[in-house]
């Protein structure tokens, strides 16, 4: 397991390593708290872009998670990056709005989903060198299934609403939206790693 956790796709200079970690942490911590505010101020709170900030923020966060899987080593860094986005998003209250208090119950599921995305990309792609698209599909499906599964467990025990508008919004937010943002993040990450490959030639 340690070999998997400490595997990196690319060897960077010490400065490059520090810059990479800072960028990924900023993507995981600040983006969920800051970007929705910027979108609301720029386009208005009721605009389509501001109303769908989860797609924009989630895509950036998932890019950070996948790049963590590909090129960040060490348990502490991985666990930190897996847990930061949900705390930032719920704490700021901008993405989930009135549902922020309800989504607190989803934090463990989101953490587990994020961690699975990082570790599956690290294991299958960074360690095993399996086709990127295959690795991404498997990782995205598992992440989405975990988060949606946890939601349904809470709903089954009536810890979270299982009927009405709130339940419908939660199912969309913790299901389809998770799959969409993870897919966009995988596409962005694919572009990034190919740019890195080209620059290294």
Describe this structure as you would to a colleague.
The two termini are 31 Å apart. The protein is 80% helix and 0% strand. It has ten helices and no strands. With 201 residues, the chain is an all-alpha fold. The model has no long low-confidence stretch (mean pLDDT 87).
Fold blueprint:
Layout: H1 2-5, H2 14-43, H3 48-51, H4 53-71, H5 75-92, H6 100-103, H7 107-127, H8 132-156, H9 164-174, H10 176-200
Helix pairs in contact: 2-4, 2-5, 4-5, 4-7, 4-10, 5-7, 7-8, 8-9, 8-10
Question: What global shape is seen?
Answer: globular
Proportion in helices = over 70%
Helix/strand order, N-terminal first = HHHHHHHHHH
Strand-residue proportion: under 5%
Number of strands: 0
Mean pLDDT: 87
How big is the Rg?
A: 17 Å
> What is the first-to-last residue Cα distance?
31 Å
Count of DSSP helices? 10
| Uncertain segments | none
Largest sheet: none
State the secondary-structure class. mainly alpha
Output the keywords.
globular, 10 helices
Summarize the structure.
Helix content is 80%, strand content 0%. With 201 residues, it is mainly α. The longest helix has 30 residues, at 14-43.
